[in-house]
Amino acid sequence: MNKPILISGIQPTGKLHLGNYLGVLKNFVELQNSDKYQCYFFIADYHSLTEDFNTKEKSKQILDLIADYLAAGIDPKKSVIFIQSAVPAHVELAVILNNFTPFGELRRMTQFKEKSQENPFNINAGLFDYPVLMAADILLYDAQFVPVGEDQLQHLELTRTLARKFNSKFGKTFIEPKPLLTKAPRLMSLDDPMKKMSKSQTAGCLFIDDKPLMIKEKIKKAVTDSGKEIRYDPQIKPALSNLILIFSALSNYSIKAVERRFKNKGYAEFKKELAEIIIKTLVPFQKKKKKLKKQTSFIKKIISQGNKKANGVSSKKLLQIKEKIGLKI
Ligand code: TRP
């Protein structure tokens, strides 16, 4: 029996943080290891060009993200790992889908509006067309499931609309993919629990490459709330609750169990153990990653196999699509 197909990608734009690790990478690995899906995980490098970038940095970021995938446990024997720009069918299908995508829908996309505001001097056509390339990424593989964050749901909805539209115009061609939202908690910034943890706010961000000393320091400096009790209460104690959430996500302690463990103990003790737990999670990952980064030829081999597989599947699909719309004579 063929397993349903699952696909997702990450943009290579720099360091990942603990929230990305729990919500994205670890989630990918769990989905892979559930053995319920045929998984494709790719590097969305074309998507990453929509924001300002540095040429020298870019290729490093791509390699680094592949190492992140592998060190986190994405296994090339189980999943297909590939690079978007090495699989031309993505761009070709995006060009085709462009003609079925209303201008107004793209203009209304929340991500487009937000990024335009953040970067008023680089509102480019790639950014505008981002959701269509994303739809192509997904539809080419007949994916039924797409693990994404909440911020990408609107793009997935567009993907479904495009699939439906194309199918009703040209006959059944695409599968309408469903989002898989991760159960991982949304981590907040360590220096401001009202803001999402984000790499642009370095001080409040735990990067997955942070060394133990840095982790200890960041946790020590993390803001807490008034009172002494270790109690989970996002309304009254948002900063502490965020830390409890991290503790629970990285250990096998439920939130209640964390509270019990630190009953009658102070913030200092809690923070000390929290830092230790983060270190215990990240150090083995960092060790694997360091080793992998020295094995460039091994990484390149895995990628070239993944690219080959992705090219095989997607070029076949593209041919069917071209036939449907009369581009094949
Ligand atoms: N837009 C996604 C993000 O930033 C990355 C992405 C690109 C993606 N293409 C995709 C995710 C296809 C899932 C499927 O998170």
UniProtKB/TrEMBL annotation:
Signal peptide: none annotated. GO terms for biological process: tryptophanyl-tRNA aminoacylation. Its EC number is 6.1.1.2. L-tryptophan binds at residue 137. One of its GO terms (molecular function) is ATP binding. Its main location: cytoplasm. One of its GO terms (cellular component) is cytosol. Homodimer. Belongs to the class-I aminoacyl-tRNA synthetase family. This is Tryptophan--tRNA ligase. It comes from Candidatus Jorgensenbacteria bacterium CG11_big_fil_rev_8_21_14_0_20_38_23.
